[in-house]
Specification:
The chain is mainly beta. Helices cover 6% and strands 45% of the residues. It folds into two domains: 274 residues, Tachylectin-2, Chain A (5 Propeller), CATH 2.115.10.20; 123 residues, Sandwich (Jelly Rolls), CATH 2.60.120.260. Strands 1, 2, 3, 4, 5 and 24 form a six-stranded antiparallel beta sheet that branches. Strands 6, 7, 8, 9, 10 and 11 form a six-stranded antiparallel beta sheet that branches. Strands 25-28-33-30-31 form a five-stranded antiparallel beta sheet, covered by helices on one side. It is globular, with a radius of gyration of 23 Å. It binds beta-L-arabinofuranose.
C-alpha cells in the first residue's frame, strides 16, 4: 500500500451520492430510533459501498450468509467479474466477507459472473454459478467448493458441471437426501445431483413450461409463460415452491408450487410486483430465527439501475394456507433480531449503513474498512451497552496523518460519547490499537463511528470493542 491511495473504481460517485441520500433517510430514521431505541430497523439496500445483485441466502450456525453477484460501478451491461459473501446474526448488521469466488476461480470461464446459489452438505459448501465457457462461448454452470461458508472456494471440477447455454442455478436438497439442480432462461431444466454434489445421475430434464404451471405471458409468442429466469426452489410443510423472475422486461417475482420436486407445478401468482428501478429482479427466501425473509435486488442506490443493482431484504409471513403474500420493496427492510454486543470484538466491516467507506482484505486478518475521508462513517444498529461502557478500543492503521474516530450514539449526528485519535502508524496495513474513554453510552442505541480529520484518506479500521464500566 502506498500513502497516496488510489481511489477504487467503486468509490467514485456512489459513496458521495449515498451520503447525500442518507441525509434524506436520516430525516425519517433518527427520531424513531430515539423513541424506540430497541426497535432498530435495517436500511435497505443491505450493502451501500458496492453494487450487489442476485441474492442467495443460506442459514448456517446462527447466521444468514448472503451470496451475491457484484455489478461494477458505471456498468452498462451485466459486466460481472466476481461474487461476494456477507453475513449477519441479526438481519440488520451485515459483515463483509469479501470475494472468495471470482471468474479467475474457473480457469475455463471467460466472463459473466451471474446469479448463483451456495448450499451446505456434510460440512462443505457448494456454490453453483453461471459463467461463460471460453471454449464454447456458451453459458455453463460451474460448481465451487469450500470448507467454510466464507471460502476460500475452489473450482470443484476444473470444467462445467452442466452446459446448455442457460443460466441461474438453484439447488435444493430434499428430506430424503436427493439433491436437485434447476436452472434456465429461456427454458427451465433440472438434474438430480449425486451425494458428492459435483456430479449428477440421469440426463438434464426440461420442466414443461405450461401456462397452468407458470402463468400466462402475453405479447411474446416465443415465451407463452411468465417464467423468465432466476429460479429459487425450496420446500415448506411438504409443499415445493419455485419462486422465479417473471416476464421481461421489467421483471416481477412470481411463484409456483408442486407436490414434488419435479412437479407438476401450479402457478400461484405474484410475490413481488415490478418495482425498484431495475429491469431484473432475483428471489432468495430463507427462514431464520422464527421469521421468513425475502431477498431481492433493485436499483435503489444512487447511480443504481438495471446494471448497477443492490440487494435488499424484507421480512414476511406466509398465509395460513402456505401461500406467499405480496411483498413490496421498502427502504426500511427487516427488523433487527436481537442486539449487537459491544463488549466482544466487532469487525469494522460489520455495518448496517456505511457512508464513504470501502473494504479490502486486511493484512491483520479478515477485511478492514478503508478509503476513509473526513465525515465518512459506519453505523451499526441496536448496540446493547446495558449499564454503560467505559472505554473504546479500535484496531487502526494509517499511512497519513491519521484522524479522529468520533463515537456517537443513534447516528452520525448523534451524541458524542468518546473521541479516539488515530496516529500515523507507518502504513495502511501497519496496525496498532488505540483506546479512549467513553461517557454516556448506556442502554441500547444505534452506534455511529464518524471519522474526522484533514483532507485525503485518514485511516483504516479492522475491528473495535468497548469495555463495560463494571466488568
Ligand atoms: O445478474 C446477471 C443476470 O441478471 C442474472 O443471472 C439474472 O438472473 C439477472 O438478474
Amino acid at each position: 500500500m502506498t500513502p497516496a491511495r488510489p481511489s477504487p473504481a467503486t468509490r467514485t460517485g456512489l459513496v458521495r451520492a449515498v451520503a447525500w441520500t442518507l441525509g434524506l433517510l436520516l430525516a425519517f430514521a433518527v427520531v424513531p430510533a430515539a423513541v424506540h431505541p430497541t426497535a432498530a430497523r435495517a436500511d435497505n439496500p443491505v450493502v451501500q459501498h458496492i453494487y450487489t445483485a442476485d441474492p442467495a441466502p443460506l442459514v448456517h450456525n446462527g447466521r444468514v450468509y448472503l451470496y451475491t453477484g457484484h455489478d461494477e460501478d458505471g456498468s452498462t451491461y451485466f459486466t460481472m467479474k466476481d461474487w461476494r459473501v456477507w453475513s449477519t446474526a441479526d438481519m440488520v448488521n451485515w459483515t463483509d466477507h469479501g470475494s472468495p469466488l471470482s471468474l479467475a476461480t474457473f480457469s475455463w470461464a471467460s466472463s459473466d459472473a451471474w446469479a448463483g446459489q451456495a448450499v451446505e452438505r456434510n460440512g462443505r459448501f457448494y456454490w453453483y454459478v453461471p459463467v461463460k465457457n471460453r471454449a464454447t462461448g456458451r453459458m455453463a454452470i460451474g460448481v465451487a467448493v469450500a470448507d467454510s461458508p466464507t471460502g476460500p472456494f475452489r473450482d470443484a471440477l476444473g470444467r462445467p458441471l452442466v452446459e446448455n447455454g442457460e443460466i441461474d442455478p438453484t439447488v435444493f436438497i430434499d428430506d430424503d437426501g436427493q439433491a436437485y439442480l434447476y436452472w434456465g432462461n429461456p427454458n427451465l431444466t433440472y438434474v438430480r445431483l449425486n451425494a458428492d454434489m459435483t456430479s449428477y445421475s440421469g440426463s438434464p430434464t426440461r420442466i414443461p413450461l405450461t401456462t397452468a404451471g407458470f402463468g400466462t405471458r402475453t405479447g411474446d409468442p416465443n415465451r407463452p409463460t411468465l417464467y423468465e429466469e432466476g429460479p429459487w426452489v425450496y420446500k415448506r410443510n411438504g409443499l415445493y415452491y419455485m419462486v422465479f423472475a417473471a416476464k421481461c422486461c421489467s421483471e416481477f417475482i412470481a411463484y409456483s408450487t408442486a407436490p414434488g420436486p419435479t412437479g407438476p407445478w401450479t402457478y400461484r401468482g405474484t410475490v413481488m410486483p415490478t418495482q425498484g428501478s431495475s429491469f431484473t429482479n432475483h428471489p432468495g427466501i430463507v427462514d431464520f430465527k422464527g421469521n421468513s425473509y425475502f431477498f431481492y435486488h433493485n436499483g435503489a442506490l444512487p447511480g443504481g439501475g438495471g446494471y448497477t443493482r443492490s440487494v435488499a431484504v424484507e421480512r414476511f409471513s406466509y398465509n395460513a394456507d402456505g401461500t406467499i403474500p405480496t411483498i413490496n420493496m421498502t427502504s426500511t427492510g427487516a427488523p433487527q433480531v436481537g442486539t449487537l454486543n459491544p463488549y466482544v470484538r466487532q469487525e469494522a466491516e460489520t455495518i448496517a449503513w456505511g457512508s464513504g467507506i470501502e473494504t479490502e482484505p486486511s493484512g491483520d486478518g479478515g477485511m478492514n474498512i478503508g478509503w476513509i475521508e473526513n465525515g465518512d462513517y459506519t453505523k451499526v444498529k441496536g448496540v446493547a451497552f446495558g449499564a454503560g461502557a467505559s472505554s473504546f478500543t479500535a484496531r487502526v492503521a494509517s499511512a497519513t496523518g491519521g484522524g479522529t474516530i468520533e463515537v456517537r450514539l443513534d447516528g452520525p449526528s448523534g451524541t458524542v460519547v468518546g473521541r479516539c485519535g488515530v496516529p500515523n502508524t507507518g502504513g495502511w496495513q501497519t496496525w496498532t490499537t488505540v483506546n479512549c474513554p467513553i461517557n454516556g453510552a448506556t442502554g441500547t442505541h444505534d452506534l455511529a463511528l464518524r471519522f474526522t480529520g484533514g483532507s485525503g484518506y485518514l485511516l483504516n479500521m479492522n475491528w473495535w470493542q468497548f469495555a463495560p464500566a463494571q466488568p
